[in-house]
Amino acid sequence: MLLEVKDLWVRYGGAEVLKxxxxxxxxxxxxxxxxxxxxxxxxxLRAITGLVVPSSGEIWFDGxxxxxxSPARIVSRGIRHVLEGRGLFxxxxxxxxxxxxxxxxxxxxxxQRALEDIFTHxxxxxxxxxxxxxxxSGGEQQMLTIARALMGCPRLLLLDEPSLGLSPMMVREIGxxxxxxxxxxxxxxxxxxxTRLALDVADTCYVLETGSVAACGLTRELMKSDLVRxxxxxx
Length: 235
Ligand code: ATP
Fold this sequence. Notes:
Layout: E1 3-12, E2 15-25, E3 30-35, H1 41-48, E4 56-61, E5 64-65, H2 71-76, E6 79-82, H3 94-100, H4 108-121, H5 123-127, H6 138-150, E7 156-160, H7 168-183, E8 187-191, H8 195-201, E9 204-209, E10 212-218, H9 219-222, H10 226-231
Parallel strand pairs: 3-8, 3-9, 6-7, 7-8
Antiparallel strand pairs: 1-2, 1-4, 4-5, 9-10
């Protein structure tokens, strides 16, 4: 198992936000974390990358325990977290933003290969490589944010609501991009409110409800359950 989260509890002030979340992400898979606003999806990702400290529980990555490590150490293990909202450098060009994503990669030839790979798979970024990031459309900015994370050659990519605020057409484009990332061997843990997108790209789904896992399983199995479809997936 590439990532294992075991009985994770997170508290903000007096409020328990995660109440014993456990989940597993197999190497090479796409796993989706679904759930209503405030269910604790983003908090789960933040705990994995060390941005919040759990009150108890364990997080294991590639056979090593990582909870309690600094975010910088966790990044250096090959985990990249694309946060909600875009966090690009608005006055830097597309190319400069991409290069920032590779700051930990020492091998210049590897950086060049990652860049060529991104330009081949996402040609719109190549066309716009000299344009300032702030002048891209919302969907293009989201694409750039994901591509920037890929420049670090991650093993595990955590995506927090990549479809947020995008038109249906751009949501489909982001779906294609996630499939493409997956085909290139990167493992993905995806937080989404857009159930259609999540079900479309994920092999396995976890549904969070007020800080606990309410349902989980292979996407195709969950889709067969009328109860899960109605109660949690809004279908
Ligand atoms: P959304 O889809 O709306 O982003 P989510 O499932 O990702 O929701 P979280 O962002 O993990 O949910 O938040 C879970 C709960 O924790 C919410 O009730 C939220 O208000 C609360 N929360 C999040 N961050 C903090 C914080 N820094 N301080 C206090 N409470 C917080």
